[in-house]
Amino acid sequence: QVQLVESGGGLVQAGGSLRLSCAASGRSFSSYNMGWFRQAPGKEREFVAAITWTGRSTSYADSVRGRFTISRDNAKNTVYLQMNSLKAEDTAVYYCAASLRWPPGPLSTYDYWGQGTQVTVSS
């Protein structure tokens, strides 16, 4: 059992930055690959970024590559999403998730999900 809680969302102006955190509790956090997803109103939940349990490999959606950085601190049981150069189209609820699968697959391959944190980018 893994519990995930996102934080760090909020309102930011276009071009600004936010860092999201996802704190995990439970056992074997460091053995899980972690991912970030987002869901905008009226849209399907989409993949944003993922990181292996070692933190040595990452994957990004084309829409965020070069602007977002995923990282993790296994000692703190936390995964981060640093979001820079934010755009209005980044507005969404952001979710973190845990999976044993690598490379990352569809949403159904993730075993645990957080409740999400709202990110709103104004322009």
Count of helix runs: 0
Mean pLDDT: 95
Instruction: Characterize the biggest β-sheet.
Output: 7 strands, mixed
Secondary structure class reads mainly beta
Describe this structure in a few short sentences.
The protein has 123 residues and is mostly beta strands. It contains no helices and 11 strands. Strands 2, 4, 5, 6, 9, 10 and 11 form a 7-stranded mixed beta sheet that branches. A 4-stranded antiparallel beta sheet has the order 1-3-8-7, with no helix packed on it.
Describe the structure.
The chain has no helices and eleven strands. The protein is mainly β and 123 residues long. Strands 2, 4, 5, 6, 9, 10 and 11 form a seven-stranded mixed β-sheet that branches. It starts with a strand and ends with a strand. The relative contact order is 0.32. The model has no long low-confidence stretch (mean pLDDT 95).
Highlighted features:
123 residues; mainly beta; 7-stranded mixed β-sheet; 4-stranded antiparallel β-sheet; 11 strands
Task: Give the helices and strands, then pairings.
Blueprint: E1 2-7, E2 10-13, E3 18-26, E4 33-39, E5 46-51, E6 58-60, E7 68-73, E8 78-83, E9 92-99, E10 112-113, E11 117-122
Parallel strand pairs: 2-11
Antiparallel strand pairs: 1-3, 3-8, 4-5, 4-9, 5-6, 7-8, 9-10, 9-11
